[in-house]
Design a protein that fits this description.
The protein is mainly alpha-helical and 245 residues long. Helix content is 82%, strand content 0%. The protein is built from eleven helices and no strands. The longest helix has 38 residues.
């Protein structure tokens, strides 16, 4: 990180990069401090977090619930496999025109893009988790005639939970990327919209300052979910081994 900061300071100073397009780091930091002192910045940050949180929450709940149901029923799993594999690789950015037509140029379009991209990551992981359930445990529960809800909560869910959290971690980072992208392209309120405004008005240092904020936000999201994983999965062998090391 220090090497990157040093490069960002030195390259424009020695003329290897045009300072008009990449100002020295020492000029970006004052722009960042100036941004932090404006209510517009904090409102944009709140808008970004609201959009990101809404999209990820809906994708997480839908992915877990549908993944548990589809993964537990062989007929459903086979019937939906080709559909999932067909829809999953579609880039969310390619759906921006459709989202704008259906939902309009606002937050709803960005939320739709986030849900579409995040949902597949969660459901794929949950399906893998359901498939990883110990067949002996599943057969034992069946032989004791446990209710479906009991089997789901006591047998399937403990095995699926680490997979679901992995899907959540992957989806959360990509969702933040799509949140900023949606705000940049569609114009929904948030940091991306503010970044676009800085670019259009020629505030290059301010633009890079906002880009740094977006990077720090992604880092914080990843760290936060890592901590959540460790707390929720404190009983899991992988986490216990990691903590022991």
């Amino acid at each position: 990180m220090l090497a990157l900061i040093a490069l960002a300071e030195i390259l424009p100073r020695v003329g290897l990069v045009n300072p008009r397009f990449l100002p020295p780091f020492s000029e970006i930091m004052p722009a960042l401090v100036q941004r932090l002192q404006t209510p517009v910045f904090w409102q944009a940050l709140a808008d970004t977090l609201i959009t990101w949180g809404a999209g990820v929450s809906i994708a997480l709940v839908a992915g877990v619930v549908l993944g548990m149901i589809i993964g537990s029923v062989a007929v459903l799993r086979e019937a939906t496999a080709s559909t999932i594999e067909f829809l999953r690789p579609i880039p969310s950015v390619a759906l921006i025109p459709l989202a704008v037509i259906v939902f309009g140029p606002g937050r709803a379009s960005t939320v739709f893009l986030i849900i579409f991209s995040s949902f597949w990551m969660v459901i794929i992981q949950v399906l893998a988790g359901v498939q990883d359930v110990d067949p002996v445990a599943r057969d034992t529960a069946r032989s004791y005639r446990f209710r479906l809800l009991t089997v789901g909560l006591r047998v399937v869910w403990p095995t699926t939970l680490p997979y679901a959290l992995t899907g959540f971690r992957l989806a959360a980072t990509v969702a933040l990327l799509l949140t900023i992208t949606g705000e940049l392209i569609i114009g929904s309120p948030g940091l991306g919209s503010l970044l676009s405004l800085a670019q259009q008005s020629g505030q290059v240092a301010g633009m890079y300052a906002l880009a740094i904020v977006c990077s720090l936000l992604a880092l914080l999201v990843n760290l936060g979910i890592r901590l959540l994983e460790r707390r929720v999965l404190h009983w899991h062998p992988s986490v216990r081994l990691e903590q022991a090391l």
